[in-house]
UniProtKB/TrEMBL annotation, chains A, B:
The keyword Membrane is annotated on this UniProt entry: no
Domain (HTH lacI-type) ranges: 1-53
A Pfam family: LacI
Swiss-Prot/TrEMBL keywords: DNA-binding, Transcription, Transcription regulation
GO molecular function ontology, one term from the record: DNA-binding transcription factor activity
Organism encoding this protein: Streptomyces canus
Lineage of source species: Bacteria, Bacillati, Actinomycetota, Actinomycetes, Kitasatosporales
Protein name: LacI family transcriptional regulator
Length: 349, 349
DNA sequence: TAAGTGGATTGATGCGCTTCAATCGGTCGG
DNA sequence: CCGACCGATTGAAGCGCATCAATCCACTTA
């Protein structure tokens, strides 16, 4: 910077002003300085910058699973919103590894980012408490915080489960089954509650079987599908709620393509999340949509609110409502392929 | 830090040593300092740290499209490799926006990251030149650099196209069509060359039609599918190479599910990239696999090499070979659903 | 002509840390 | 008992920048 100042025949203070408060500098001088900057290839040192100012204009976003399109959507929404308020969004993928997650939280903490968005897959209250105790703001995504510890953006996951079950009930299915795993993952727990509520509400005419898939990935889905396919037709549920799109697609694949069980005629299937793959699958998947983009945007809003209001901030939780997207795997009518109200994912707001 | 020093009854130098060179400090003192650190909730300031050292241990990775699973795979591989050498990987998504890409390149440049991994969708030589001129290292992913300007990790995209075409030819298809768009995107250009080479090699018995889809996303694929479906059966190609999985799946959907054209019987389809969705689609897609994880790992290796060897570094290009994954949309035999050699994506190294 | 005015510019200060030469205190050999 | 030696510890210097009180300069007003 001194070099630039020398080259332009000004002081370092003026160079700094050109960079940060152009209005304070006369146009001619500013031009001279800018010329020197580009001639010398000067790059201002962000470390020194944020050392002085005590902050940066970056927001860190820690994602548990970057392979999941819901998380990608959240990142997308957050990115847009962050940009709009002049912040950069830095992404970090923990691949569901809590050690890595703590690493990244600490990294962002040490980097004095403006704030952190965290979309975890496990309880992370320890990490949150740690960096919050240093005065760093955190907004939790798709995971309820311990009450009063931070802001959060959630989807009404109970309603996700409810919508899935309700849709099947409304379309005339009576022998329902709910396939899930990882009840330690909060959204999964919530969805189960919603499923049960809908079934109870329907009265004794509707039965619910709960199937533990053991895991949320495709192989587990295949296994569940095979188990189901081996059953006597009379023992087969006629409506399947599946906790995850990925799992649902895997199950459908076994049922439909491998075992020749007709979906949705014999078994209707509803998934949750409305992932990228949902609409493109062999049997397009009826799924409860999670508004990922909006969640990301809301999270940034909450974060910036908190940063701006300082002491008098009150933590808030934004709960967004899910929406059912009806496709072929569980049409509106009881049997057969109903009208496709397939809303393109690309049109998502 | 002074506070910690006071609390522990030592000097700041000792506190710093506890954090950075524990061996230099007596165990008793170290313990006392650590206790003070956690009691006071001290977090060392990364900005000051890297101001002194002039570097960080973070690597920035700029991705053109985080929605594309190839890019996600590259990020995954890079993350693993970066961790192994004690570096943090920070991700940035440009959503194909060159302005944003430049923003992030500059941000990483100003942050004095160890180096930058860039997976662009357009020529980015200006940005690369800019930050390289500041001495910052860049490795380009899936895009050829201007010769001699930086290291890069590529896939032999010409061979991608060749493998796709060759597979169709070998399975007896003779009226081929190649669907692509965005020839300004280098990998696309390369694939076309490979397709043409394979067709020429096959001699006059095989014809090639080149179809411009106008874009690479699902809606464009639907349009192409509809156009094809309207043709007289005799005018229909019997083998389709499609530049992208997403496009391929969309085309198959139109052809197969909507228009009732049998895939692969009437038209066999081969995609490129072997995305997440490839294996799960209605008609599982035969695709040429791009080794994303390995690309990410190699990129980190090249970057760390370059950082380590300083002046005497010579730029290198690593070209990885693609591999054909045969699924139902274009089985090995000429007609009908061949044996599924569906390699689970999850098993990818 | 002197005092006043305000925009442009200066440069010393300090942000929080790492480093390293200097110092301290204790131990060992002679 | 003295000097040499060594590990542990100290604390000042400086990393590159933003800030802001102080200064400068050109111009206006009385």
């Amino acid at each position: 910077m001194q070099d630039v100042a020398d080259a332009a025949g000004v002081s370092v203070g003026t160079v700094s002003n050109v960079l940060n408060h152009p209005a304070k500098v006369s146009p001619a001088t500013a031009e001279r300085v800018r010329e020197a900057i580009s001639r010398l290839g000067f790059v201002r040192n962000d470390a020194a910058r944020s050392l002085v100012s005590g902050s940066t204009n970056s927001i860190g976003m820690v994602l548990a699973d970057i392979e999941n399109s819901l998380f990608i959507d959240m990142a997308h929404g957050a990115q847009d919103a962050a940009r709009a308020v002049g912040q950069n969004l830095l992404l970090a993928n923990t691949a569901c590894d809590m050690t890595l997650q703590d690493n990244y939280l600490d990294l962002f903490d040490e980097s004095r980012v403006t704030g952190v968005l965290l979309a975890p897959m496990e309880d992370s209250s320890a990490g949150i408490a740690r960096i919050r105790s240093h005065g760093r703001q955190v907004v939790l995504l798709n995971y309820s915080p311990k009450p009063g510890t931070c802001c959060s953006v959630l989807v009404n996951n109970e309603h996700v489960g409810y919508l899935a079950a309700r849709h099947l009930i409304d379309s005339g299915r009576t022998r329902l089954a709910y396939v899930a795993a990882h009840d330690d993952y909060q959204p999964v727990r919530d969805r189960r509650r919603g499923v049960r509520a809908a079934v109870e509400e329907a009265g004794p005419g509707v039965t619910l079987e709960e199937i533990d898939s053991g895991g949320l990935t495709t192989p587990y889905g295949h296994a569940v599908g095979q188990d189901l396919a081996r059953r006597a037709p009379a023992d087969l549920p006629d409506g399947l709620m599946v906790v995850t799109d990925e799992l649902a697609n895997a199950i459908i694949h076994e049922l439909h393509a491998v075992a020749g069980i007709r979906v949705p005629d014999q078994v209707a299937v509803v998934g949750c999340e409305n992932n990228r793959a949902a609409g493109a699958a062999a049997v397009p998947l009826t799924a409860v949509d999670m508004p990922g983009r909006m969640m990301g945007r809301e999270a940034i809003r909450l974060l910036m609110d908190e940063v701006a209001s300082g002491e008098q901030h009150r933590h808030a939780t934004v709960v967004l409502e899910p929406e059912l997207i009806v496709r072929a795997s569980a049409p509106r009518s009881g049997v057969g392929v109903g009208t496709s109200s397939d809303r393109s994912r690309g049109a998502q707001s």
